[in-house]
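Support reply, case 0932

Customer input (verbatim):
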Amino acid sequence: MRTVHHLTLPRALHPGAWWLWALGMAVAASRTRNPVLLVLILAVTGFVVSARRSDAPWAHSYAAFLKLGLVVIGIRVVLQALLSTRSQGNIVLFILPEIPLPDWANGVKLGGEVTLEALLTALYDGLQLAVMLCCIGAANALASPRRLLKSLPGALYEMGVACVVALTFAPQLVTDARRIRAARRLRGRTRGSFRTTAMPVLEGALDRSVELAAAMDSRGYGRTAQVPRRQRRITGVCVLLGLLGILLGVYALLTDSMAFPLATTALAIGLLLAVGAMAIGRQRVTRTRYRPDPWALPEWLVVGSGALAAGSMITAAALGIEGLVLAGPLVIPPVPLLPVAGILLGLAPAVVAPPLQARRRELVAA
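Our regenerated output:
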């Protein structure tokens, strides 16, 4: 009789899948100013973060983005209150002292009457931007930045290395400063000048830089294969043009500043150029990747849920479904069914993404 223990360890979802899902939810938020839909998107992202975040330091960044969103809403409302005019509404809430402005600022008002319609419009606009920020915060809370940079294509690996170094530099400085203060308190020195703290921190940073450079050189960073200069230039130009095409297509789709066929054509051409150039640029990289993150069915389901949320909102706008944009700030927000169904599909990562906390042990007897 022999007993074999099989330990199935949970794996983390690919960070690129989290970012694509979050961008899909942000696109959905950018297509509407309906507060009901915006609050629903915020609730969906918050539920997914609470269900699938890890215990890593970056996993607590969602709360910071929520606070930043509240600040954005507050600033938007305050500016609207200072600059609003009677023409923006008829229901006057209060009157602020009006500050006279010079003649060259004719048409600009600072203070005076503040209307309910103007404040509600500012509240909806600020809520839209706050929800988009929270979608990005959800990606930051769910995806490891180091694993995301490690997954960059080979053509961009130099940029990935620089970003990894930059991301680890600032937290290490904070850790060194805390360590120095703790050491000073152990020695009975409760007070210290900036120089007594800054010099040891900078010295430690320089030492780590030398050690990091030596470690990177020993692991082959910076060593590239022999590729003709002409091919390198063509690859760089294609990557740049592809990224510009992607930005132009996405901007046109989000703002309706370009015809839909033209925007989709620019986006498709940009994707083809960028993907093709990055695939060719991988020939320069001779290093191997240790334990690459898999891209399996859960990743496709997570990305698909974000794409369906964005697609439902874009489809509703193309079909002219009422409720995405309110007819007026005092109108009761309607609840269109198609966008609501698409947004609720964004809850799928809370179920299909592998949970990090669960561990399963199977006992097999032979």
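We compared this against your earlier run and they match. Two observations from our side: The two ends are 6 Å apart (CA to CA). Confidence is low (pLDDT under 50) at residues 1-8, 358-366. Please reopen the case if you see a mismatch on your end.
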